[in-house]
Design a protein that fits this description.
alpha+beta; Immunoglobulin-like; Neutral Protease, domain 2; eight-stranded mixed beta sheet; five-stranded mixed beta sheet; 28 helices; 28 strands; about 20% strand; globular; protease; signal; metal-binding; Aminopeptidase_N-like_N
């Protein structure tokens, strides 16, 4: 009887769908939701709530029951519910059992089965666990066989775990019940209210959550080890796999978490909205961390250590904790309406996370680290042919991550930082507080945010918004001045348009600093704040000042602008870098020299000469890391262009390795600095002498005072030895893999195997990558290690094949896969022929996805830069 009723209802459903007029965009069998479809759905649907029940047993599948309740404005057209690749076993709509109209992507609900007003839908289903880091991901620990689950839903992957209106502006409440093995923990947005014994399982009950967008909700489960700390303002818990628990430093996690919660409560003027603060270290994670409300996930690989954490590692931990914590207010409490607002979500968290790190932890130099690291990535990205505005349209969920890059995170954060300087600290904070108070538990837009700031400042920000958020490219700023005698008689700031051709000139506030040479150090004469706009801005306050040896027009990094040093200042920086006492300015001058290399103004070998003379005198930990980053890029270029500069490339790399070893030996007693230099020594080692020494250290035939080879360091050495096929390296790899059978050990062994200059290994892993015949976490490691630059001959063997199949790979593989494949497997060779091949591929494949086409164009531009650097090198 029930089956016959379902059949009649299905026939009625299909008939209605064929004849019923619709005023909403029709959904085709496409896994991605368009913005138009999402807005049409949210215009009709409101007051959404989910009752979710999951049955978890650790097997490859899970089952679930969802009771979905919502208000519907009209029944004029079908309604879709997102559910990805599940098997539906029962569907009941408003009390009527139905056979589901389901295409593996979404349920299409006949409007005749819906009510104007309250609707209740019951869905029972099962689904395989995800293994690519999205949905409800399943991981089996190779050490002990224990199974761990965690959810990841951004941008629109909640549908891989339960039926849902998977868009950010349909916020809902969630009431969760989970059946799980007795030794498991279950973690969600709320704290469990009861755990009932149920045979060989426990039944976990969670109270109704606050209103959350689907991508902010989470459920994690498994036999996680748990640490607790109730000494702070809110209860804090930390979770990790049992087999890696000894690599976690919970005291640091709790210290930075408590400090951040106190800081943000005060800054935002709203208490932390989710009552408890859980953080979970998870394996195979796609990103650094994710701001699930009250249940934040972190990538294991970035936060597990076999030795005491260095200052850099602690700062990175504090910074990521603060970033995700800022999201709890700005992102979870107040959420973007659609994915075009994702940049603001991430930019604000990057900005606030750095501010909190600087003000609430021991890392008061966090803004210097931001400048030397992420901000340089933003300048680089904004100078590419693929630059884009901060705010861009996002047509579908497939495009949500197209523009998630250094422009989204670090340029956005830098723009907010300079806006704070422009408006004043107190005004900016007041505007943020007003925004959060007004839109809490709701969705908001960029206009809402800017409107709150404008109201607090009593200032029109429309032109600022247009110039900074809707126009692409980074401007350059240069001081132009003349002196009469020893005094300045004219001074201007010259703003030039972006080198990528965008014509916008912007307004912002900076500080101009004047310095003169002293016997032992540079002396700051004065610094003056200047708000500049247009092509020229006169600075009359500097007329009559002493004529400087060096002018820096963005002192203390208020503005987002590339500084071009005038000729005199550039010469001073190159000759007297070590005399600059201010570490922030010294960092900026180091960057100016490196910018000279990338623009072709300073030959790479001249830059390296400056490094070899000045870097050994540098005692600032952050600056050493910054310059080492430039040296790693220099090594990459030297190995890429070794056919033209083989003799110099070899000698320069030996010099990098020997300098690093010498400074590691000289820094005994300064553990952070010594470990930084020793890590550099491992990564720079490519000559026989350095590699032989590393092998001796690994085997215990040599030692370095102050250096202990923990497991991570041993694997770094083994990878380096195998990269250059040093004698005996393959045997060392096999022995280490046998000794370390952990998940991290398996992955490190794979990286060392794939990076070997062995044609058969390359061919086999390229086949596995192309066929996706290995689990995605392994494929990702293989792609990252397959073709290092010095193995040019090997990579050329398959270069044409990889270019020819790029379009096919792009059309058949998923977004997650292509985000790793494109930057690593598109050929790079640092030759004019390579540039020509890439440009031809661009022309021949206009149908490539936005993300892959952007990567292809950026690699072509990077090849052009490598050729330019090679051509500019002095012989």
């Amino acid at each position: 009887m029930a089956k016959s009723s379902a059949l009649l209802l299905t026939i009625s459903w299909l008939s209605a769908c064929a004849t019923s007029p619709t005023n909403t965009p029709a959904r085709t069998d496409n896994p991605y939701l368009t913005e138009q479809q999402a807005m049409a759905r949210s215009a009709r649907v409101s007051d959404v709530s989910y009752k979710l029940r999951f049955n978890l047993d650790g097997s490859e599948k899970f089952s679930g029951v969802t009771d979905l309740s919502f208000q519907l404005q009209d029944t004029n057209s079908p309604l879709t519910i997102d559910l990805n690749k599940a098997t539906i076993t029962r569907l009941v709509i408003n009390g009527h059992p139905l056979y589901p109209k389901y295409n593996g992507l979404f349920l299409a609900i006949n409007p005749q089965m819906l009510n104007s007003g309250l609707n209740q839908i019951h869905i029972e289903y099962n689904r395989p666990h995800s293994t690519n880091g999205e949905g409800l991901h399943r991981f089996v620990d190779p050490v002990d066989g224990k199974v761990y689950l965690y959810s990841h839903f951004e941008p629109a992957a909640a549908q891989q775990m339960f039926p849902v209106f998977d868009q950010p502006d349909l916020k809902a409440t969630y009431e969760l019940t989970v059946s799980a093995p007795k030794d498991w923990q279950v973690i969600s947005a709320t704290r469990e209210t009861a755990i009932d014994a149920n045979g060989d399982k426990n039944l976990w009950h969670f109270p109704l959550s606050p209103k959350l967008s689907p991508y902010n909700f989470a459920m994690h489960a498994g036999p996680y080890h748990m640490w607790q700390d109730n000494s702070g303002k809110y209860p804090m818990r930390l979770f990790a796999r049992q087999s890696v628990a000894n690599q976690v430093h919970p005291a640091d996690w709790f210290k930075y978490t408590d400090a951040g919660l106190r800081f943000f409560d005060n800054y935002f003027g709203i208490n932390y909205p989710f009552k408890k603060y859980d953080q979970i270290l998870v394996p195979d994670f796609l990103y650094g961390a994710m701001e699930n409300a009250g249940a934040i996930t972190f990538a294991e690989g970035r936060f597990l250590y076999n030795a005491e954490m260095t200052s850099e590692q602690k700062q990175r931990l504090a910074g990521v904790i603060m970033h995700e914590m800022a999201h709890q207010w700005f992102g979870d409490l107040v959420t973007m309406k659609w994915w075009n607002g994702l940049w603001l979500n991430e930019s604000f968290a990057s900005f606030m996370g750095t501010m909190a790190t600087a003000k609430a932890t021991e890392f008061d130099y966090a803004w210097r680290s931001f400048y030397a690291g992420g901000k340089q990535g933003a300048y680089e990205k904004d100078s590419r042919v693929t630059t884009h505005p901060i705010e861009v349209p996002v047509p579908t969920t497939a495009n949500a991550f197209d523009n998630i890059d250094a422009i989204t995170y670090q340029k956005g954060a830098s723009v907010l930082k300079q806006l704070r300087h422009l408006l004043g600290d107190d005004v900016f904070q007041k505007g943020v507080q007003n925004y959060l108070h007004q839109y809490q538990w709701h969705n908001a837009t960029l206009q809402d945010f800017i409107g709150s700031l404008a109201k607090a400042a009593n200032r029109n920000l429309e032109q600022w918004t247009q110039d900074w958020l809707y126009a692409a490219g980074v401007n350059s700023l240069q001081a132009q001045y003349t002196c009469s005698g020893d005094r300045i008689d004219s001074f201007k700031l010259l703003q030039s348009v972006a080198e990528t051709g965008q014509p916008t000139l912007r307004e912002q506030k900076v500080q101009v600093a004047l310095l003169v040479k002293g016997r032992h150090e540079m002396h700051l004469l004065q610094k003056v704040p200047v708000t500049y706009q247009g092509a020229e801005t006169s600075v009359p306050s500097l007329i009559g000042a002493q004529c400087p040896d060096l002018v820096y027009p963005n002192y203390e990094d208020w503005g987002f602008v590339k500084v071009q040093l005038d000729q005199r200042s550039f010469a001073t920086a190159q000759a007297d870098l070590a005399k600059v006492a201010d570490p922030f300015l010294r960092s900026m001058l180091w960057q100016s020299l490196w910018d000279g290399v990338t623009s072709g103004a300073l030959p790479l070998n001249d830059y390296l000469d400056t490094v070899f003379v000045n870097l050994p005198k540098e005692h600032d930990y952050t600056i050493v890391g910054q310059v080492l980053g430039a040296l790693h890029r220099s090594k990459y270029w030297l190995e890429s262009m070794q056919s033209l500069h083989s003799s110099y490339a070899a000698s320069a790399q030996r010099a990098m390795a020997q300098m690093s070893l010498r400074l590691a030996m000289e820094n005994v007693g300064n553990s952070d600095m010594q470990r930084r230099w020793f890590g550099a020594y491992i990564s720079f080692a490519s000559d026989d002498m350095s590699l032989s020494h590393l092998k001796q250290l690994l085997q215990g035939d040599a030692t370095l005072d102050g250096i202990t080879l923990d497991q991570d360091t041993r694997w770094n050495i083994i990878r380096q030895l195998n990269r250059y096929n040093f004698k005996g390296s393959e045997q060392l790899l096999r022995a280490e893999a046998k000794a370390d059978q952990s998940d991290s050990g398996e992955k490190a062994a794979l990286a060392a195997q794939v990076i070997r200059p062995d044609a058969a290994v390359k061919a086999e892993w390229l086949r596995r990558i192309t066929d996706e015949s290995a689990p995605y976490p392994k494929l990702r490691i293989a792609m990252n290690n397959l073709y290092p630059p010095e193995q040019a001959q090997l990579q050329r063997q398959t270069a044409a094949q990889r270019l020819q199949t790029l379009a096919e790979m792009d059309s058949t593989k998923g977004r997650v896969f292509m985000r790793t494949y494109a930057p690593n497997l598109i050929p790079q060779d640092c030759t004019q022929a390579s540039v020509a091949d890439l440009q031809q591929t661009i022309k021949a494949n206009p149908q490539l996805s936005t993300m892959t086409m952007r990567t292809l164009k950026e690699i072509a531009q990077g090849e052009q830069r490598c050729v330019l650097v090679s051509e500019k090198m002095t012989q």
